[in-house]
Write a structure and sequence with these properties.
By secondary structure, the protein is of the alpha+beta class. Among the domains are: 172 residues, 3-Layer(bba) Sandwich (FAD/NAD(P)-binding domain), CATH 3.50.50; 115 residues, no CATH class. The protein has ten helices and 20 strands. The strands form three sheets. Strands 5, 6, 7, 13, 14, 15, 16, 17 and 18 form a nine-stranded mixed β-sheet that branches. Helix 2 crosses helix 10. The relative contact order is 0.20.
């Protein structure tokens, strides 16, 4: 590891850290920037376990960061993929109301998407729905033709290549174990020392894109952020190849507005396979991709947090249902059949999983919007769930702009 002084150290080599690095290299080319990634490869966690959906911006409260960043991010992402020869498809998505009680929420989604500037949204009836997704049944659906699919690990790799071509440094296998400020840090000639197994890197400022460990990184800097990352595992089945014809693009239910997850759905990915899921169950380890994954320290850390119990009191019924579905393929199948009645248990094969870094406030509130805060000599990305990958260019541009504004006089 080069131990010379850096202007910016970005912690986290996922899609947001790499987008930020790439755009800092463009907006502040005189700065020396490094990315520190704890794994031996980039984009292996939330980015690498992403479903690959390029969201269009329907679900999000107008004026929120999610709404603004997603709509702008999708347009920028499509352009970036075309310019860098990354395969993508705008296969479209239907959000399906399976009974009349969901029609009001579907109308709300249509109005939200329209307010957010999502183009060509259309409320369609059963006949048009059959034309789009022949095996799907519903009383009405919201058709979003510009929602797409891509391999986000390839997008992240392209960001990394551009950053390195501009002179940036990426260090893998370099988890940050300790952060120490010198007396003159924060713009007065000092530095922040980031201790890793590969050596100590000196930087004037930090950008924390630590994902599942973003709160821990913030704590290392002495920042009191008032949230805790609680990991939720999402488990998928895959459709067997002979059943792929049941799904043309993306098929989603009308989401429960009380819970920041979209419900089990069908996703055709860019490689041609079809995933069914995910659920949302509490993970007993921050990188707990399997049911048996357990870390006593991380589990106790969640249980000791007051916000966890307040969250549990609010959502325990929903949570128990998610756990039940996790252990019962029959229950999982029943929920999938609401959207696709013809699907059978024999159509489902074991699939993968991902872990969502969900920031939870002390009062038990699950943060719904992106949360990016500015500290003493750092910027912390504390909550960037879906559509974080879709929004990566817009978020990276925003963070780079904050860095230039906040640190410009001292780097």
């Amino acid at each position: 590891m080069e131990t010379g002084q850096y202007d910016i150290a970005i912690i986290g080599g996922g899609i947001l850290g790499l987008s930020t690095a790439m755009q800092l290299a463009a907006s502040a080319p005189s700065w020396k920037v490094a990315v520190l990634e704890k794994e031996d490869a980039l984009a292996t966690h939330q980015t690498g376990h992403n479903s690959g959906v390029m969201h269009s911006g329907i679900y999000y409260r107008p004026g929120s960061h999610k709404a603004r960043f997603c709509v702008a991010g999708l347009n920028n992402l499509v352009r970036f993929c075309e310019e860098n020869e990354i395969d993508y498809q705008q296969c479209g998505k239907v959000i399906v109301a399976t009974n009349e009680s969901e029609l009001g929420r579907l109308q709300d989604l249509y109005e939200r998407g329209t307010a957010n500037g999502v183009p060509d949204l259309e409320l369609v009836g059963p006949e048009r729905l059959k034309e789009i997704e022949p095996y799907t049944v519903g009383v009405q659906a919201l058709w979003a033709p510009h929602t797409g699919i891509v391999d986000f690990t390839k997008v992240a790799a392209a960001y990394a290549d551009k950053f390195q071509q501009a002179g940036g440094n990426i260090f893998t296998g370099a988890p940050v174990k300790k952060i120490v400020r010198s007396a003159g840090a924060a713009g007065s000639g000092g530095a922040v020392a980031l201790e890793t197994p590969k050596g100590t890197l000196q930087a004037k400022h930090i950008i924390n894109c630590g994902g599942l460990y973003a709160d821990r990184v913030a704590e290392m800097t002495g920042e009191k952020v008032g949230v805790r990352i609680i990991p939720f595992r999402g488990e998928y089945y895959t459709l067997r190849p002979e059943s792929h014809n049941l799904v043309s693009g993306l098929i989603y239910p009308v989401p429960d507005p009380r819970f920041p997850f979209l419900g089990v759905h069908f996703t055709r990915n860019i490689h041609g396979s079809v995933e069914a899921g995910p659920n949302a169950v509490l993970a007993l380890r921050r990188e707990g991709y399997r049911k048996r994954d357990f870390d006593i320290g991380e589990s106790l850390g969640s249980l000791a947090y007051p916000g966890f119990w307040k969250m549990a009191a609010k959502f325990w019924k929903i949570g128990m249902g998610e756990v039940y579905r996790s252990f019962s393929k029959r229950v999982f199948l029943r929920d999938l059949q609401r959207l696709l009645p013809e699907i059978k248990e024999s159509d489902l094969a074991s699939g993968g999983s991902g872990v969502r870094a969900q920031a939870v406030a002390k009062d038990g509130t699950l943060l719904d919007d992106f949360s990016i805060i500015q500290g003493r000599d750092a910027i912390h990305v504390l909550n960037a769930p879906s559509p974080g990958a879709t929004s990566s260019l817009a978020i990276g541009e925003h963070i780079a702009g904050l860095a230039v504004e906040q640190f410009g006089g001292s780097s």
